[in-house]
Amino acid sequence: MAPATPQDYDAKLAQLERLADLLDSRWRIPGLGIPIGIDGIASIFPVVGDSATGVVSAYLVYQASRMGVPKNVLMRMAANTGVDWVVGSIPVLGTLFDIGFKANSRNVNLLRRHLEEERDRNPALRPTLRRV
Predict the structure, then answer these.
(1) Other Cβ atoms within 10 Å of 48 Cβ, number
(2) Of the four listed, 58, 95, 120, 123, which is most buried by Cβ atoms within 10 Å?
(3) Please, what's the b/e burial string for 19-34 (b: 16 or more CB within 10 A of its CB; e: otherwise)?
(4) Which tens digit of pLDDT belongs to each residue from 80-101?
(5) The pTM is what?
(6) How many whole angstroms separate alpha carbon 81 and alpha carbon 31?
(7) Superkingdom of this entry's organism (predicted)?
(8) Range of the domain at 13
(9) How many domains does the chain have?
(10) In whole angstroms, what is the distance from residue 59 CA to residue 120 CA?
């Protein structure tokens, strides 16, 4: 079920952006300044850590589907999540990949882009899409 009002879309998008930030870039690696989130930290534990964060990433895709995102966008989001899980599960290399790839941020950007295009087609039905 899609959110009912533009404000509902704003609230849901803001929630998913916060989740993506937590997973991908909430903190910075000291001395390097490279953003890292729970996904990068959890990938230190190959397969188990990536599987746990993969479930949360799948929730993001699920919420996008509830917002009425078309299948082609959902497939791109699912592909980002799948690549993140597969490559992220490789010891050492996967951790570096997770830190750089940021699948959740990519997915939220895909969602935002779709919602902005929808808003442009019909401004009365879509959110203001404020950046958080």
Answers:
(1) 11
(2) 95
(3) bbbebbbbeeeeeeee
(4) 999 999 999 999 999 999 999 9
(5) 0.86
(6) 29
(7) Bacteria
(8) 6-26+36-121
(9) 1
(10) 27
